Amino acid sequence: MLIWINGAFGSGKTQTAHELQRRVETAHVADPELLGYALHKMLPAYERNDFQDIPQWRSGVGDVLQQAEGAARGPVIVPMTIVRDDYFDEIVGGLRERGVDIRHYTLSATPEALRKRLRSRLSTLRGHEDTWALSNIDRCVSALNEARYATHVPTDDLTIDEVVEWIAEDAGLPLVTERMRPARYQLRRLGVGIRHIRL
Fold first, then answer.
1. What share of the chain is helix, strand, coil (3-state, %, to 5)?
2. CA separation for the pair 37, 51 (Å, rounded)
3. Number of structural domains the chain divides into
């Protein structure tokens, strides 16, 4: 099974994916951003725009996720914003056509909540505000409201634990690990955030 966690930037995809991985036995996080950044490193700086526009990224993500899902002992969790209908159909639709069991979830939140979350990120606190993510909030929220991007999980009033438990119940995934105590969870969350700062 492949669990695709979609959502606008700041919706909590990465934190949700890693907490879901911690709580579901043998789960694996497969982050398509890694392939995107690898492709960027191979291109001249002036060619480094949105890596989702690179055809090799889209085909590569589909191929690698199919391989990962086939080899995994548990669910493969994919935290990735994707809002273009044609790209969504190419990757997610293409995987479904190949027989991959994909459960797609969009973490939704108001633009105000997303801006607040993005501005509280470590990279912003270090003086590296993600202006690209902030400038794309309205576009992402509008696109992801469409039925194509269901199932929608409203996150404005939910904690990460509650989002994880919502997805696990909907996907039929047994949670074998309990919630962390607040202090320990905040340390883990900080660690996940540090590992995913993109400068």
1. 55, 10, 35
2. 8
3. 1
Give residue for tokens 């047994």.
174
- The mean-pLDDT minimum among 42-46, 124-128, 162-166 falls in 124-128
Exposure of 83 in the CB half-sphere (CA atoms within 13 A): 17
Q: Is 29 helix (H, G, I), strand (E, B) or coil?
A: strand
Q: DSSP of 125-188, one letter per residue? A: HTT---HHHHHTHHHHHHHHTSGGGPSEEE-TT--HHHHHHHHHHHHTPPP-SPPPPHHHHHHH
Does position 121 have pLDDT exceeding 90, yes or no? no
Spatial separation of the C-alpha atoms in residues 122 and 127, rounded to whole Å: 9
> Residue 70 is encoded by which pair of tokens?
């086939």
pTM, whole model, 2 decimals? 0.88
Provide the mean pLDDT of the chain: 91
Q: Give the number of C-alpha atoms closer than 13 A to the C-alpha of residue 69, restricted to the C-beta side.
A: 20
Which domain range does residue 63 map to?
A: 2-195
Angle between helices 160-171 and 13-23 (to 10 degrees): 60
Check which CATH number belongs to the domain holding 15 and give it. 3.40.50.300
Residue 105: strand pairing partners = 5
| 165-186 pLDDT tens trace | 999 999 999 999 999 887 777 7
